Amino acid sequence: MAQIEYSENGSRNRGAVGTRLLGAIAYLVAAACLLPMVAVALAAVTGGTDTIAHLLDTVMPRYATTTLILVLLVAAGTFAIGVGAAWLVTMTRFPGVRLFEVALVLPLAFPAYVLAYAYTFVLDHPGIVQTTLRQVTGWGPRDYWFPEIRSTEGAAAMLILVLYPYVYLLARAAFLQQSSTAFLAARALGNTPWEAFWRVSLPMARPAIAGGVLLAVMETIADFGTVAYFGVQTFATGIYTSWFSLGDRAAAAQLALCLLGFALVMAMAERRQRGKAKYYQSGKKQTTLPQVQLSGWRSGAALLLCAVPVLLGFALPVVILLEMGLTSEQNLLSQRYLGFLSNSLTLAGTAAVVTVSAAICVGFFQRLRPGRGAQTAAYVARLGYAVPGGVIAVGLIVPFAAFDNALDAWMRETFDVSTGLLITGSIWLLVAAYMVRFLAAALSAYEGGQSTVHANMDAAARSLGQSPLGTLRRVHLPILTPSLMTALLIVFVDVMKELPATLIMRPFNFDTLAVQAYRLASDERLEGAAVPSLVILAVGLLPVILICRQVGRRN
């Protein structure tokens, strides 16, 4: 973008100061996003070889194997359900297809650990399913085999049910954008609809589908609540166990480094495939893909295939949680629960405002100065989405705890005054962790809206004497209000659901709804865990409703 000269020296000076201020904030945000990764790497390297050697001999192979199995199962499951459902609602017509276009997004409102609580209550040994089976057949506990819900496969099933909408949304958008030209050409060459889909439409949508699957994989390796409750040993649970149960900071840092390395490899793979796998239409899009009217058993099969993910991923868990909550002794209006709700809303609201403000600074600075420095800052700011919450928690606590301890020691020696922990264990450090974790989502929403603001509007504002900050405040922000509200809502809900970083970094006696649900479930008080879980679900429905409205408008 060409530089715009100001008509007055005062405006030029204010513009230079505003640009430098935005640049300083953007680079500071990028440094904050980079700090946890650098701190984890340094803590792991300085932790000594004895710890890592012990981990390699004991838990590391099990963590690596389990995490890899979980990733492969979730990748395969989300691909099959997401792509299959997207193709059915895009390419075919059957009873209820309009309803399923929206309903297939609803499981996205569930945190995976909440789904785990619901299905454990029903499918575990004392649950209603196995109890009824024993009553009907007269079998004893050892007379039959039943799938174990608390297993790696069970954790994968929970994650698949809540993460397949990522693949569904991206795959469906890719199918809707495709022209019918290539598909009809494949049909004219003798391919069946299935062969044309497999050979033409699916490869053309591969970048979007791969992006959705990799996003699901990133969420899988970052998950803590589900695997911890099911007793599945992954890197995420190993970090928490090493930090709290064993008190081994070096082991936690080295496990966090392993998880960070895996996450960054996945992030680079996503960017690489997105950058290279491109398909272009030969001309303007003339017609959409032809839709097939299904009838008979095909219509019933399509209806069943779309209904099962919605039923298992949303409708049935909601019913189970409502029944659990009604039979529990938890009072959502009690002073204790109002405190949990207040803490959750305070953290989520503060983190949303801070994160979106940081995204505005980074995004607008990149627009003002589209050079290598601004692009690097924006790229580093996006890395947080690839870093699990537990890794960010360890990466922030290690340097700030060292700073607090050094400051306290110096104050004791110099002034005989103890400062204690000024930063570690504070709300603001936890908010910083949330910002690092969810800045990429806010930045994507902001940049999506910013792309609709033409460069001529900036030039017009500058020619009228507006500084960069004035242009942002008077031109960009009013236009981008819908995008900013979307970003605020997404970050707000993500923070409400975030568990590992909150568990590790929360201030003393400052519990949230997610922490309360996890604590009750860990004590096998599943009915009680349903109450905070329902509140989290209700809040999580807000962005899903927003997405559903956008899907409906596009249709």
Plain-language structure description:
It is a single chain. The chain is an all-alpha fold and 555 residues long. The chain folds into 2 domains: 15-45 and 348-506, Orthogonal Bundle (MetI-like fold); 47-109 and 149-278 and 294-322, MetI-like fold (Orthogonal Bundle). Helices cover 77% and strands 1% of the residues. The chain is built from 24 helices and 2 strands. It has a two-stranded parallel sheet with strand order 1-2. The chain is globular.
Quick synopsis:
The protein is mainly α and 555 residues long. The chain has helices spanning 9-45, 49-57, 60-91, 97-103, 112-123, 128-137, 152-177, 180-188, 193-204, 206-222, 225-230, 235-245, 249-276, 296-327, 335-368, 372-382, 389-415, 427-450, 455-463, 468-479, 481-497, 500-505, 513-522, 526-554; strands at residues 92-93, 292-293.
Topology summary:
Layout (H helix, E strand, L loop, with lengths): L8 H37 L3 H9 L2 H32 E2 L3 H7 L8 H12 L4 H10 L14 H26 L2 H9 L4 H12 L1 H17 L2 H6 L4 H11 L3 H28 L15 E2 L2 H32 L7 H34 L3 H11 L6 H27 L11 H24 L4 H9 L4 H12 L1 H17 L2 H6 L7 H10 L3 H29 L1
Parallel strand pairs: 1-2
Brief descriptors of the model:
1% strand, MetI-like fold, 2 domains, 24 helices, disordered N terminus, two-stranded parallel sheet, 555 residues, mainly alpha
User: Percent range for helical residues?
Assistant: over 70%
Using the alpha-carbon principal axes, give the shape: globular
Number of strands: 2
CATH-wise, what's the superfamily of the largest domain?
MetI-like
